[in-house]
Amino acid sequence: MTDFHQNGNIAQFHNLRTRSLDELEYELEAFAQTRKVSLILPSLFSELTGPALEGILEELSKVRYVSRIIVGLDRADETEFRRARNFFSRLPQEHVVIWNDSPRMQAIDDRLAALGLGSQEPGKGKNVWTSMGYLISCADTAVMAIHDCDILTYERGLLARLVYPVVHPGFSYQLSKGYYARVGEGKMNGRVSRLLVSPLLIALKKVQGDHDYIDYLRAFRYPLSGEFALRTSMLPDLRIPSDWGLEIGVLSEAWRNLGRQAVCQVEISDAYDHKHQPVSPEDAEAGLNRMSTDICKAIFRKMATEGTVFTQNTFRTLKATYYRRALDLLEVYHNDAVMNGLSLDRHAEEKAIELFSENIMRAGQMFLENPHESPFIANWSRVNSADPALLSELRAAVAADAEEYEAIPF
Known about the structure:
alpha/beta, 9-stranded mixed sheet, globular
């Protein structure tokens, strides 16, 4: 993606291949002397035995501008937590593993539930939210970055480019979003972004007319990327969705709280590949089937708060418009793949488009039946108002778990 195009909506930073990684990291190390950087890694225990995380830790061990790494660990029992502590012990940075399933953390969840502030469901959103709370309690970090633990093509330049715009003292950006081409194993990937989000936003503009929020989302080259960095001053008021709408939700929060001038996107990788979710057409609560519904609801909810009126007829028209636009884009993607020597299964892609079009209607019906549904976990400002002691007790619980459960070999 070596170009220098600007869309006039949000700032785009490209990799023009004119600067070495060593030079970039040297500058980041100088900035980090006065702007502490912390990294959050939301992880499942199963990812510790996967093909990606070993390489990620090897690369992170060479990064000197990150002061702290917070690992949010999900779906782990006591033995697995002990093994995870040993697995991450190779990191030279200050680091902590938050065992989200520990009795102490479950007790904190119970307190939140009693206040009516608990998360509706476990998952990546809850993991990130808890890790953010821990970071807020540390009260010593200027910039927070986050990326997934299943990136097969990870190299440390990804993180350097991601954090640079929000660490640089001469830049005013508050949030940096990563983008890249989703290509791996000779295939064009990124189905949900290509086949759902892009044509859906085009269809929404066609059906609803000009809308600043739609233009804002369309400005992102890869809106569903899991890599972003932000200045921590916005963390207490940041609402995190607990469902699959996490990435769209964070962008929507930036739209609400910051405005487009404070948001940028950065080209962070030449080749990016990670674990692929199954489509799961037979199960509406799993895989890309569930993800597509949650993403649609997240967009519809945000547009409603901006004054857009939705009806059953609106969603019928939107479904038809989306379907035509998605097929048009599929033709373009196919030709792009052929030109670049990549494979693309047109039958499978059309089946995905058919499923996504049905889920637009499904998400619309769910929105109409329950327009006040909110998957957002209460932001930390509200939690602190309801229970001022909880943040410090969260940090104490993490420390107590680390003291009680010693690391054991993996």
